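Sorry, any thoughts here?
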Amino acid sequence: MNVFNRLVMIVLLVVSMIVLPVVLVLVPARPDIVAVIGQQGLSWLMAIGEQNQLLFIVGGVLSAVLTFIVCGLLLWLELRRPRGKAVRVRKVSGDEAKVTTDSIARRLEYNIDQLSEIISVKPKITAKGKGVHVRLNIETGPEIDVPTKTEEISKVAREVIEERMGLKLAGKLEINIKHAPYPKDWSVVKKRPASDSGPQEPPSLE
């Protein structure tokens, strides 16, 4: 969410926390205020209040408290500092080093993209405990050997994550392979045209 959307959401939540509880408490206690807001639109509210005003006031107070709690929770979720998407490096002794999940994704994308028949690589990295869960969405050529290519991708990914970056895999690698479509003219067999000239006879020696 960008800065503008966050500011708008914060303002709306603050206004709701202040205005809605006041309205929900004052309207049941002072039904005459309803006429100021709009007699026709809130006429049913006045009728219910006249029948059982005490119960109606209690309901209004409970609604105000609930509204305040919900708005406060939403405001806290909006203002709270998001968790850093970083994973701790396990092979650093004495110090603490972390690598962001974006850096892991970019490094995997670069290294796997160097393999043959790889068209695109879209890694999805999720920090999970002390390790990372890796999902690789890969588009390949239409005629690859799937088991061999999967093993090749897995070997490169594990080497990058565990050996070069010093991270720990959380569970198994998840590799999703999608084949690129065949060319539209894949069924057309192009043959080399036959030569019109027959076999050449060696010139006679006279």
